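[Automated response] Your request has been received and processed.

Submitted sequence:
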Amino acid sequence: MEYIKKEFGSYNLHMVNTDRFKTINVEVIFRNKIKKEEITITNFLASILAYTTKNYPVKNALALKLQDLYSARLFPSCYRIGKYYNVDFNLSILDEKYSEEGMFEESLELLRNVIFDPNVDHDEFDHTSFHVIQNEEKAQIERIKEDARKYSIIRMLQTLGKNLEFSYSEYGYMEDLDKITPANLYEFYKNFIHNSSIDIFVIGNIDFNKTEKLIREKFKFRVFKKNKDSIILDNIVPRKKPQIVFEEDNTSQAKLSIGCIIDHMTKFEREYVLNIYNLILGATADSKFFKNIREKYSICYYVSSIGNKLDNLFIITSGINKKNFDMMMTLIKKEMQDMDNGFFSEEDVENAKKYYLSILEEAIDKPGQIISSYYAMSLWGVDPLEKRKEEILKVTKDDIIKLSKKINIDTVFLLGGDKN
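Generated structure:
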């Protein structure tokens, strides 16, 4: 696998040459400082751009064109990453070895249409497409509460850090959706295209020179000064006493979400120690949470954890009967205290390292994960894959204990469990 990064004014071009896949994957990533009031309109814009274009003004026309390109797949995605909000346009096509000559260029032209030739007339997005996407975005926002686990995490984060970046809902907000019109959406689009930081990834069995030439012909963005601000959120001070919030919901199973603040991690802790800590404590079926709480006491339906290194947060989630809340909190605190005190074995550490290395090995089998890896290297200095394999082996039990003592429970949120 060979990787090249080139900078062209307002965007970075990343090319990865590998013969591991039968596809060529192109990902155009737009990045902007996150603003709560712009999340909904950004989601709307991404969806409408991928729905129709000036050349393909109805959904079926665009779908037929993708079919003609040997069933190419084109889809947008929106997500927060630290202090930024990203919009990705993902294109996956068959390598010309398995289709026909010219398919790569023709597919790039379609992607160019999607980004640069929106279905706009008289400075307004097409009204038919607009109303379709409007209804879809409305339904997405309304569906938030249907996934009680996700909703409880969102509500916990809103309670933990109101108005901080991690508290914003990536689903968007109904009050902001109501303000979007075909005209102001187009105004937002022009600003979005002109001012986003952009990374373009191409991965597959590609010729670097040919790929670079095609990308530079198809994608011409305005040159501007790039934003060099750190993507990692600022550290926040945890409460001296954790806050506990109950929210009623007509469900039989209560959803427990616990937000812990991690105090001033080093780069090594952020990229390596946190992963091992999480694997030992709650991320797998071999974790302390699973074995010592779920299996031993059988008081929860599930219990797991995740380390959010860019937000300096550690999150624990569980499904419980509401009556077991106090006991569940006691057991979770005990397992975390045991980590502080080093009550885990060297074997636990070695098994976690092996698991982490297996995850790294699996990552090279998926184009999207390879792109994510190189993006992280470019954006906030994550180490290359081979170095990560070396560095993870350096994590010691003392490193884990030291990090554990930096992790403090700040907010406990319990949703539902009120239905008889």
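Summary generated for your ticket: The mean pLDDT is 94. The domain at 243-415 is CATH 3.30.830.10 (Cytochrome Bc1 Complex; Chain A, domain 1).
If you did not submit this request, please reply to this message.
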